[in-house]
Write the structure tokens for this entry.
Amino acid sequence: MQPIKKSSKLNHVCYDIRGPVLDRARQMEEEGHRIIKLNIGNPASFGFEAPDEILQDVIQNLAAASGYCDSKGLFAARKAIMHYTQEKNIANVQMDDIYVGNGVSELIMLATQALLENDDEVLVPSPDYPLWTAAVSLAGGIARHYICDEQSDWLPDPENIKTKISSRTRAIVIINPNNPTGALYPDDLLRDIIEIARQNNLIIFADEIYDKILYDSASHTSIASLASDVPFVTFNGLSKNYRAAGFRSGWAVISGDKTRAQDYITGFNMLASMRLCANVPAQFGIQTALGGYQSIHDLTMPTGRLKRQRDLAWKLLTDIPGVTCVKPRSALYLFPRLDPAYYPIEDDEQFVLNLLLEEKVLIVQGTGFNWSQPDHFRIVFLPNSDDLTEAINRIAQFLGRYRARHSRSFHHP
């Protein structure tokens, strides 16, 4: 009998944040090993809990949440999101422009499926959050990766973006604040990207899920606030800013030149209707979250837990010989570089697997974020300071042994 095969649409899909190395980590846990997990930005796993008033609103309204709601979401939730777009200076957003989804992940799939014909191209950053590349591929499109420049604090290079545009290019993705690098984009760069979209008739997909997780007095500008003549879809949600990742409550906002995008919006509406609606209980937390006390600032201020853990993890990593890292201005991640002169790596997935097996620390390899060279990895700095210190000390020990093992066949400085 013939084997039942997976769809060829999955041939170019990778999501190594939950990939083969994680499967091995689970197996090790079942065998009784304690793994320090630095692989997923899941705040609740590390004691970052959703604010009580959000939980209370969900609990209080549970009896009213058993039926379907409007396919775009609850009125009160979308009204609160509309007010939030006004705070972010995104012009002319109406209730009908807002879609609540089962996390931003679902909405990314809807946004790409509604837009792309087979072999259409989307400009996606490298490194990226890999769901973007996967969603483009599943929609039949091709992700063209533009380079974010580590020498320029991981900012995209507009000139490089221009070289990736073809007659099939339909959209450009920006992830700002950035995962995995923690970069935060200045207004001049955002205007440059808008101009590229304007000249090439592109829609801008702006993933802004970390827009409140900012350090060192940084501020975030929504790219959609800087123009009204280009179509934008802006994505955000409760997962990170409000530590409610399990609620799967995100939203997409269409703004800018909606007239030109009317047919696309019709497609988006069709897909939103086909899944009936996003989960209703979690939507009752949105209004309270956006309008209430913003407790994330307590965590990112100079004495806050996230800020302290970012600084600690960055120092411990950059103290390791041959490891450099741009200090993130936002988000929950570090994306350090391993100098190939110290650590000649050919297969970074095997590298992180060996780290797991030898030191019981789980990280994600850089190529899992569509970075072309096997010389980076991503860690989350959500674990408490003691666990972070222990994990990075183990990484340092592993790198020391790795360097010694390869020194015979490789010249070191």
Remarks:
- The two ends are 57 Å apart (CA to CA).
- The first strand starts at residue 36 and ends at 37.
- The chain has a mean pLDDT of 95.
